[in-house]
């Protein structure tokens, strides 16, 4: 498939000349905050957006029949996500639902699940603006980790107290040094300059080569606290060298779910009623007279964005709150319900979720390695260029 339309690149170059960052707000090239601003500007630029739609549609319409099937749409949807910094489908439960939802929205109400160019343009505009709104609320920070921040951490006064505290948490006198060092990398985070050590690529290309630079006989010896602190310093220095040779791109997100979004929704009766009507219309006919947990969870998922909640399955702590709220609202007994009762169950469940999160907020921080280069992507949309790493706050 050809690279993206020239109109998209011309539009991005124009914005670069005007001093805008690629993908969102820039902080002196230390990080890129993908906040949806560039997406909104693209959609509002009618000429650039029109040329993008025309070229993209032509590239995706493999059989030239003037309509796009679901199979032909998925590459476009994947490239939209890559362009705004979302992890690849299957990489993160926080974003995995987006691709399927976008395809469903694009084909909703169309004959045989296909879309014409006009339908594609209209739906793509709606989807992009929806993504932009979501990113404005919950930006994604794109970090390029090249070892600089890690070297600064190791050389700072923070290092020894941090290393000693980590050792007290993960090890004990007598545990093998290798095990303690590997566990320490799991404890360190992007604000230390360490990429996610749970990622298989990071382990194979960064961690293991760095470990091999330490004396093999020492790695299997019992670890003492002082020895651990010394060897961890050496290991992190080796990791920093590997990162300098092979920088790692990380998509970082932070979210606090405190129920405030639910409170705003419940306080806006007009918006709430409109959303409840839309959700009720979307309930399959065979489920309309029976309230089951599965049906209610699906309905709550359709209200998630408006309530500033994650989709079910994305955050286990919030899932537990929702499950408990369904029980509290007596919404999981499979009773026969009409439209009014169904809407009341949803409203009561949201109220229970709000109260629980207000009392016990859930904080979630995710770091996902982006394995595709952010510049030079072969997809239909260009991604933000690599930038130097910076700890996220």
From TrEMBL:
Positions the record marks as coiled coil are none
Task: Supply the alphabetized keyword list.
Answer: Calcium
The record, for InterPro entries, names: EF-hand-dom_pair, EF_Hand_1_Ca_BS, EF_hand_dom
Q: Which GO terms describe its molecular function?
A: calcium ion binding
Q: Where is the EF-hand domain?
A: 53-83
Question: Domain of life here?
Answer: Eukaryota
**Known SUPFAM superfamilies for this protein?**
EF-hand
The answer on whether this UniProt entry bears the keyword Calcium reads: yes
Report whether Calcium shows up as a keyword of the record. yes
What PROSITE patterns does the database record attribute to this sequence? EF_HAND_1, EF_HAND_2
Q: Which PANTHER family match?
A: CALCIUM-BINDING EF-HAND FAMILY PROTEIN-RELATED, EF-HAND DOMAIN-CONTAINING PROTEIN
Name of protein: EF-hand domain-containing protein
Origin organism is Panicum hallii var. hallii
């Amino acid at each position: 498939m050809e690279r993206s339309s020239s109109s998209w690149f011309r539009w991005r170059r124009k914005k670069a000349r005007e001093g805008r960052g690629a993908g969102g707000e820039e902080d002196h090239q230390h990080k890129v905050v993908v906040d949806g601003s560039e997406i909104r500007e693209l959609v509002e630029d009618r000429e650039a957006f029109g040329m993008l739609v025309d070229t993209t549609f032509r590239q995706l319409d493999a059989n030239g029949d003037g309509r796009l099937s679901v199979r032909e749409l998925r590459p476009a949807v994947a490239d939209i996500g890559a362009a705004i910094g979302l992890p690849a489908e299957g990489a993160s439960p926080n974003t995995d639902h987006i691709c399927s939802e976008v395809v469903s929205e694009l084909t909703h109400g169309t004959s045989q699940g296909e879309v014409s160019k006009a339908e594609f343009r209209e739906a793509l505009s709606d989807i992009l603006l929806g993504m932009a709104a979501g990113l404005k609320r919950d930006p994604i920070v794109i970090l390029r980790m090249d070892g600089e921040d890690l070297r600064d951490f190791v050389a700072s006064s923070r290092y020894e107290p941090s290393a000693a505290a980590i050792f007290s948490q993960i090890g004990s006198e007598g545990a093998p040094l290798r095990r303690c060092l590997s566990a320490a990398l799991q404890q360190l985070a992007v604000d230390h300059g360490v990429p996610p050590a749970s990622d298989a690529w990071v382990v194979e290309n960064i961690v293991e080569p760095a470990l091999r630079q330490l004396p093999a006989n020492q790695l299997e010896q019992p670890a003492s606290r002082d020895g651990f602190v010394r060897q961890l310093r050496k290991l992190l220095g080796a990791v920093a060298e590997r990162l300098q040779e092979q920088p790692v791109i990380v998509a970082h997100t932070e979210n606090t779910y405190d129920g405030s979004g639910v409170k705003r929704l419940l306080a806006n009766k007009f918006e709430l009623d409109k959303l409840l009507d839309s959700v009720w219309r979307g309930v399959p006919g065979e489920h309309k007279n029976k309230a089951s947990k599965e049906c209610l969870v699906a309905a709550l998922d359709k209200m998630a964005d408006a309530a500033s909640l994650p989709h079910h399955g994305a955050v286990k702590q919030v899932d537990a709150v929702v499950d408990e709220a369904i029980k509290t609202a007596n919404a999981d007994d499979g009773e026969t319900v009409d439209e009014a009762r169904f809407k009341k169950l949803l409203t009561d469940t949201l109220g229970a979720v709000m109260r629980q999160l207000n009392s016990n907020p859930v904080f979630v921080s995710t770091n996902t390695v982006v394995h595709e280069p952010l510049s030079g992507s072969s997809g239909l949309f260009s991604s933000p260029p690599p930038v130097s790493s910076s700890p996220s706050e």
